[in-house]
Amino acid sequence: MIDLRSDTVTVPTEGMRAAMASAQVGDDVYGEDPTTCELEARAAALMGMEAALFVPSGTMGNQIAIACHTRPGQEVIVEASSHIYNVELATMARFSGVQPRVIPGERGAFTAAQVAAAIRPDLYYLAPTGLVCLENTHNAAGGRIWPLERAREILALAHSRGIPVHLDGARILNAAVATGLSPSELVQGFDSVMFCLSKGLGCPVGSLLCGSRDFIVEARRVRKALGGGMRQTGILAAAGLYALEHHVDRLAQDHENARLLAEGLAGIPGLSVWPPDTNIVVVEIEEGPSAQELCARLRARGVLCSPAAAGTDPKRIRMVTHLGISREDVLRTVDLMAEELRGRRV
Ligand code: TLP
């Protein structure tokens, strides 16, 4: 199977498995797992932040950040197609007692003027704005890199109003590799950032939440409260350290494969394709079957992909390149797609 559903489907490589097998471990709830401590220090340094916390998933990292930055009864400014708003099960309401204030972005990015208009004035009957969240790269916008200047305008505006800004940086390393900027440059000024090890970096589990020392002290409490205090996590952290060493630069290959895939698919009549910034290709079916049906037909021929944005757009498909996808897989996918849309089989 050529599995383009997500970069979350990557499995540990031989080298990563060897690193995991030989990891030194201890009880991380006591703060005694040396490999996890090393990974957290490494992640904090990478992001140019004071401290970091290993968490089981990106969702938990985002939700811990929201819980730490806000208090119940506040609003959180989010983009309409963001992961935090759409596919995290309303957890900001469930766990933090806050409600999203949703701003439509243009391909995932809103402007400082839009944020300024959405920040609530200080009136006794309005829910105060407690946090702004951005997402880089932006998943539903096709792995789009957030325009840095615009992010900096939003950071300046929010901070001038005393509002913190969290970055859902699940794929921030894709943005770093694609732009040639360091992760710390991309996240400079954010109050917290979450990034994932279990997507393009190929780890089996794990994300890191980074921020100030005080923020991470509180984040550790919230993680435990959510049931995310884990014990001998060194086995997982070793995979993370290995990935940061060996799997970051190679993301460029995934971006190259995504470009190749997009170019190939764009040449097929009936499809229009969003030019990818990184490793996510969004395909719109202008003429032809529904996304659901086309995905089912491709599955029968050995290619897995999914309707985009959790199926909310019946004519849109998402394909994600990653370390389990070769150039040959991409070329074969393009051929199969062309055949399916011509309605015949070889
Ligand atoms: N994204 C997954 C699915 O949930 C859609 C994927 O296949 O792309 N932020 C962003 C931007 C994400 O894309 C994801 C996962 C998360 C957060 C949540 O991470 P996990 O799945 O580890 O909770």
CATH class of the largest domain: Alpha Beta
Provide the β-strand percentage band.
Answer: 15-25%
Instruction: Walk across the major sheet and give the strand order.
Output: 2-8-7-6-5-3-4
CATH A-level architecture of the largest domain: 3-Layer(aba) Sandwich
What's the CATH topology label of the largest domain? Answer: Aspartate Aminotransferase, domain 2
Q: Which small-molecule species are bound to the chains here? A: ligand TLP
The coarse silhouette is globular
- Report the total helices: 14
Low-confidence stretches: none
Helix and strand content put the structural class at alpha/beta
Oligomer: single chain
User: What's the main sheet like?
Assistant: 7 strands, mixed
Radius of gyration equals 20 Å
Helix content: 40-55%
Structurally, the number of domains stands at: 2
Distance between the termini: 18 Å
CATH superfamily of the largest domain: Type I PLP-dependent aspartate aminotransferase-like (Major domain)
Provide the fold topology:
Layout: E1 2-3, H1 14-21, H2 34-47, E2 51-55, H3 58-69, E3 75-79, H4 83-86, H5 91-96, E4 99-103, H6 112-118, E5 129-135, H7 148-160, E6 165-168, H8 172-179, H9 183-187, E7 192-196, E8 207-211, H10 213-225, H11 234-246, H12 251-266, E9 271-273, E10 280-285, H13 291-300, E11 303-304, E12 306-307, E13 316-320, H14 327-342
Parallel strand pairs: 1-11, 3-4, 3-5, 5-6, 6-7
Antiparallel strand pairs: 2-8, 7-8, 9-10, 10-13, 12-13
Helix pairs in contact: 1-11, 2-11, 3-10, 6-7, 12-14
Bound molecules: ligand TLP.
